[in-house]
Specification:
Blueprint (H helix, E strand, L loop, with lengths): L2 H46 L3 H43 L1
Length: 95
């Protein structure tokens, strides 16, 4: 092998290695910026949204309050119905 062939092979190897390193750096930079965006989104979600486990006691309290309100309304409607039926039955005797 002559010196020209050896230098050509060394040049090709260095060129391939350089392109490989440049390609890897480019890919790492692309992945790094995407990772930063993903982590920023995760941080935003964890900061701005509440976990379901954290809300369950509040939801339970609201449901209990709604149940009590429904019970009171049922009692109120039954009393109104009873009063109206008494009024109607008392009016039947007059008409």
């Amino acid at each position: 092998m002559t010196i020209e062939v050896v230098l050509t092979i060394v040049g090709l190897v260095l060129a391939l290695a350089g392109s490989f390193v440049a390609n890897n750096r480019y890919i790492q930079n692309q992945m790094g910026s995407k990772n930063e965006r993903v982590h920023a989104r995760i941080d935003e979600i964890s900061r701005d949204y509440a976990r379901k486990d954290d809300l369950m006691p509040h939801l339970k309290r609201i449901e209990d309050s709604t149940d009590r309100t429904n019970e009171r309304l049922d009692k109120f409607y039954s009393e109104i119905t009873k009063t109206l039926s008494e009024m109607v039955s008392s009016m039947k005797g007059r008409v």
